[in-house]
From TrEMBL:
<dbReference type="InterPro" id="IPR029063">
    <property type="entry name" value="SAM-dependent_MTases_sf"/>
</dbReference>
<dbReference type="GO" id="GO:0032259">
    <property type="term" value="P:methylation"/>
</dbReference>
<keyword id="KW-0808">Transferase</keyword>
<dbReference type="Pfam" id="PF12847">
    <property type="entry name" value="Methyltransf_18"/>
</dbReference>
<keyword id="KW-0489">Methyltransferase</keyword>
<dbReference type="GO" id="GO:0160105">
    <property type="term" value="F:tRNA (adenine(22)-N1)-methyltransferase activity"/>
</dbReference>
<protein>
    <submittedName>
        <fullName>tRNA (Adenine(22)-N(1))-methyltransferase</fullName>
        <ecNumber>2.1.1.217</ecNumber>
    </submittedName>
</protein>
């Protein structure tokens, strides 16, 4: 079984299901670990590039795992997987993948964006997925991991309880669970980010919005 880095180890710890799909499987380590430890019974690895696809095939050959070539959710049928992970891409790419085939998104989704987690929170609010938890993980470099669950059909998507009582625009940018927990490393990050923006001569509208949200939240 491959040793997972702290980022993927954390993601693996959030997944337990019958059939799990991992988009952008690359080295195949996440699914190999999930299958080797019995956290999932069957896996579906999806890759859109030849070398990572070949690497996934080698890493996953001895497990109950399909390795499929294709773009995002295109090779997955509706209802085929119970859970989904997408790790190590930008938030914008992840949202493109999730919105292209909305009926193929499983009920439980774990995402580890390298940037723009705000876009992912907006996707959850617009698509009826509640943000059930979010964490910063890692040793030197910190990564964000967000976990979503499909809301019941009669619950309005914008009624995600994670945002209840919070400054919504700050919560979308910075994370509602982070704002509630106010962990030391999260507040330290906000202070560092505030200092960075305050040192800039000119702020873009997006940076201004983020700085304002940070100042309202610290
Ligand atoms: C930076 S790697 C991350 C690998 C692994 N998920 C991890 O977190 O360690 C991103 C992988 O996603 C694949 N990828 C990017 N866009 C994709 C898409 N639309 N469909 C399938 N795979 C994709 C890339 O080929 C690459 O192997």
């Amino acid at each position: 079984m491959p040793r997972l880095d702290p980022r993927l180890r954390f993601v693996a710890g959030r997944i337990r299901s019958q059939v799990h799909a991992d988009i952008g499987s690359d080295h195949g380590h996440l699914l190999a670990a999930l299958l080797a430890t019995g956290r999932v019974v069957r896996g579906i690895a999806i890759e859109n590039k030849p070398t990572p696809l070949a690497n996934s095939r080698v890493a996953l050959a001895r497990y109950a795992c399909d390795v499929r070539s294709g773009d995002g959710l295109e090779p997955l049928q509706p209802g085929e997987a119970d859970s989904l992970s997408v790790c190590g891409m930008g938030g914008r790419s992840m949202v493109e993948i999730l919105t292209r085939f909305p009926d193929r998104v499983p009920d439980h989704v774990v995402l580890q964006p390298n940037q723009r987690s705000d876009l992912i929170r907006r996707w959850g609010l617009a698509s009826g997925f509640h943000l059930i938890d979010e964490h910063w993980v890692g040793d030197h470099r910190l990564f964000e991991v967000l976990e979503f669950s499909r809301a019941a059909a009669d619950v309005l998507s914008h009624d995600d309880p994670a945002y209840e009582g919070l400054d919504r625009s700050a919560a979308v940018l910075l994370g509602p669970h982070h704002l509630r927990r106010r962990e030391t490393k999260f507040v330290e990050r906000l202070c560092e980010e505030r200092a960075y923006y305050q040192g800039l001569q000119v702020l873009t509208p997006a940076s201004r919005e983020r700085l304002d949200a940070i100042e309202r939240s610290i």
